[in-house]
């Protein structure tokens, strides 16, 4: 009997399929091409912005582009590759202007920009959760800026990546929670910018009447201001940066 590959064995280089980005760089020019990848990405982003990611299909995208569905598979191998194109299209490194000599400003700007992009394209949260590979050219440029800002600091390569993952994780988590809250508010008829306390009125009244959660009840009775998502995000980013600076002694 022949040897079988162990489930945990690393794949050989020849077994790893080439990414769409490498294929785009190495593909010969063809006279048959009627679309470009930026055109496909822009059409997909427009559909997802208008109808949500769940409404995006290869068939609907093909219709919007005026081509047969199978024609799209000449450009992308799968829905995951389409999502990669879309993510890359909305991540714009050119808007990042913070001085690389100020690592705090660089990381704060990137985190804030991630929030702004997520709010502008609510489907981005779900798309990033579905795509296994987020090493797109635009995201790589953002990572280059983050690494560049950390290069002068006494950090190892692993520490730099821990630093980057910590900020990226916070930005994704906080932005995702805000996007989901806004979508829920809109579905319930309060509008995306409505006061979330309206949504929670029934549950809050039950909480107060139950008598089982005295600390939470006291906070509510003492009065809580409306949620200021932008301010809370800024506080969270600065707290993360302060904590990471202490953790890594920088």
TrEMBL record:
Record InterPro entries: Homeodomain-like_sf, HTH-type_TetR-like_transc_reg, HTH_TetR, Repressor_TetR_C, Tet_transcr_reg_TetR-rel_C_sf
- Kindly indicate whether the keyword Transcription belongs to this entry: yes
What's the short name of a Pfam family annotated to this entry? TetR_C_1
Q: Specify the DNA-binding region ranges.
A: 57-76
Alphabetized, the UniProt keywords read: DNA-binding, Transcription, Transcription regulation
- Is Hydrolase found in the keyword set? no
* HTH tetR-type domain mapped to chain residues: 34-94
What name does UniProt use for this protein?
TetR/AcrR family transcriptional regulator
Species of the source: Catenulispora subtropica
